[in-house]
Write a structure and sequence with these properties.
about 270 residues; alpha/beta; 5-stranded parallel β-sheet; 4-stranded antiparallel β-sheet
């Protein structure tokens, strides 16, 4: 039976220039591969070693990118290795099969959202009413499923984020702060639900996962073994679970370490 490897992308396997955390002397910095270009500019990177590890992983397991990105944002990424058969976008709102949306899955997601949480329009209205132009830079909606803000992080009041989280909780939504973005996401919109569906379809008996943010917690808990890097929301909260390994590496080298761990488990070479 195949091993299913479901991994978050941004700040887990791929990194913007600002998130690389290259703390070593310049002469010892790893060689980097650009894996995403946006508006004719390089945007996301992984180490060349990580690129080779990901190629090897594609041969050893069923690798499934599992991201909060929209489908359009995901399709900008050019990962090394075999094209993934499955990918999860919009935090589970869309399941791609050979690059095409599975419309039956999407319809099931929409039905759950309608039944279990407040409508997106109510959340948008609250964000527009309470966000301060002093620190708000953009307000966006992703795939008509969830909302996010782009903010000036240093100006963002912690109290506002806490108040938003409490307000959202009472309406069946959750809040996640990742870098300069604040996400408001319906609770039923989860990566784990889509991963379980792919595990069912493929007959996978072992699921491995990695992620760095609050929106990845359900994904990690659904896996047989998971990893989180030494940066991100989960690390900041010292989040832990029995099957989760907290790695010390931060930045782009954490992505490299995660891929090594995936391969060890896939090949059954982990020390006893």
């Amino acid at each position: 039976m195949p091993v299913l490897v479901a991994s978050d992308l941004d700040r887990t396997l791929i990194y913007s220039a600002a998130a690389l955390a290259l703390t070593m002397p310049d002469a010892r910095a790893p060689r980097l591969l650009c894996v995403e270009v946006h508006e004719a500019r390089p945007l996301s990177f992984m180490t060349e070693t990580a690129a080779q590890l990901l190629t090897d992983l594609g041969d050893a397991a069923l690798f499934m990118p599992t991201t909060t990105r929209t489908r359009k944002q995901y399709q900008r990424i050019n990962l090394p290795g075999p094209p993934p058969k499955y990918a999860v976008c919009a935090n589970g709102g869309h399941l791609l099969v050979d690059g095409a949306t599975d419309h039956d899955w999407h319809a099931r997601v929409l039905a759950r959202l309608a039944d279990e949480c407040a409508p997106l329009a109510e959340v948008q209205e609250y964000l527009a009413k309470t966000a301060d132009p002093l620190w708000l830079r953009k307000q966006r909606v992703a795939e008509d499923l969830f909302a996010y803000l782009v903010v000036e992080r240093e100006l963002l009041p912690e109290e506002w984020v806490k108040e938003l989280a409490a307000w959202a909780e009472n309406r069946g939504w959750t809040v996640s702060l990742q870098g300069r973005k604040i996400y408001a996401v319906p609770k039923p919109l989860t990566k784990s639900a889509a991963v379980r569906e792919v595990a069912r379809r493929t007959g996978a008996e072992l699921t491995l996962a990695a992620g760095d943010s609050l929106l990845d917690a359900d994904l990690l808990l659904a896996a047989d073994h998971g990893w989180r890097p030494g940066h991100g929301e989960l690390a900041d909260a010292a989040w832990a679970a029995p099957q989760i390994t907290a790695l010390p590496e931060r930045g782009v080298l954490a992505g490299e370490r995660i891929l090594r761990e995936f391969l060890r488990d896939c090949r059954g070479t982990r020390p006893a």
